[in-house]
Amino acid sequence: MKNLYTLLAVLMIFGIATAAQAVTPSIPATQKTINEKIINLPWKYELKKYSLEQSNSTFKLTRGYSLLLGDAARHYDHMLQGTEEDPNTEALVFNHNTGVQLILSYYPDGYVSLENWEDLDADILMQEISDNAKMINAERAQNNIPPLRIGGWLQKPRLNEDNHSVSWVFDVIDGDETTVNAVSIKLGRKGYEKITWVSSYDNYLKSMDALAFLVDQHKFNEDHRYADYSLGDQMAAFGIASLVGVTAGGNPQKVGLAALYAGLVAIGKKLLVPVLIALGTFGAFSRKLFGRKNPKLQTDPIQV
Q1: Burial of 76 (0-12, 13-18, 19+ CB in 10 A)
Q2: Per-residue confidence (pLDDT) for residue 205, from 0 to 100
Q3: Rounded CA separation 232/97 (Å)
Q4: 302, 219 Cβ separation under 8 angstroms
């Protein structure tokens, strides 16, 4: 398995470090200890709606997935990557069959207008993403890391006005490994939820409809929905086109939001396969979460 910590150099170049750092617990000394700590995190597997306090929203868990909330989700990511905990992360969803992960992060930046959606040019944005990927290859070469290349759109940015979300997918070729960068932004009254799909390219092709399904399991609470906007509410300092451009990894100078959105660019994010899976301890992890008979797990018909 490739060194998981080579990701840190890539993310630093793109400004992924968050502006406001949370107090971060120390990383366990050995991989065996990391495995044990991950297995013993407070995973949720009961099929019900879970409250996401930061965003005043819920996420409904379905069969085949487990969930970490709040501090546990932030610490999980910290243990795997060695980076500072992201205070915006509020949940992590994990598919125990495929290793697919969903990272839910909330940004309380106000009500994002859809008025400038037509300003978004997907072809120009992809060129900017590709150019930015080339810029980090010199740094990768210094660390003996293969060059990063953007394959292209698997799904151009798409606005869903029914659930007030926008999503996109493109593939990333990192050496001999192809992964997908799939993101959906779910808009609310006082901010937005960024939902990042992390998987291999093959797993994406096998379940490409799963992202839309999982995004729909997230819902803002009443009075915090996008449709609940009231005159006088805080407006975001940017429109939807600018937000998509920066979040997808476009030219931050063009939209002038780099300082405000350090930490949003997901370009170069590698597949975060848990160390416990790589070391063959996934069986114990699965048995711990799903080994007991659970009526709800047996009756839910959805398997993504």
Answers
A1: buried
A2: 82
A3: 46
A4: no
Picking from 93, 38, 87, the residue whose alpha carbon sits closest to that of residue 68 is 93
201: buried, middle or exposed (CB in 10 Å: 19+, 13-18, 0-12)? middle
Q: In this structure, what token pair is assigned to residue 246? A: 């920066």
Ranges 184-188, 203-207, 242-246, 254-258: which has the least confidence: 254-258
- pLDDT, greater one: 192 or 85: 192
Q: For residue 66, what pLDDT is reported?
A: 92
**Residue 97 and residue 286: Cα distance in Å, rounded?**
9
Q: What angle do CA 101, 25, 107 make, to 5 degrees?
A: 50
Q: What is the mean pLDDT of the chain?
A: 75
Average pLDDT (240-254) is 79
Q: Do 140 and 10 contact (CB within 8 A), yes or no?
A: yes
Q: Which domains does the chain have, with CATH numbers?
A: 4-299 (3.40.1000.10)
Q: Widest CA span of the chain, in angstroms?
A: 55
Q: Please report the pLDDT score of residue 249 as a whole number.
A: 79
Count of Cβ atoms closer than 10 Å to residue 59 Cβ: 26
155 — pLDDT class (breaks 50, 70, 90): very high
Question: What is the number of H-type helices and E-type strands within the chain?
Answer: 12, 12
pLDDT in tens, 223-245: 999 999 999 999 999 999 989 98
The per-residue b/e assignment along 243-277, b for 16 or more CB within 10 angstroms, e otherwise, is bbbbbbbbbbeebebbebbbbbbbbbbbbbbbbbb
pLDDT bin (cut points 50, 70, 90) of residue 28 is low
Q: How many Cα atoms are found within 13 Å in the side-chain-facing hemisphere of 171?
A: 16
The string of DSSP letters for 238-302 reads: EEHHHHHHHHHT--HHHHT-TTTTTT---TTPPP---HHHHTT-HHHHHHHHH-S--HHHHH---
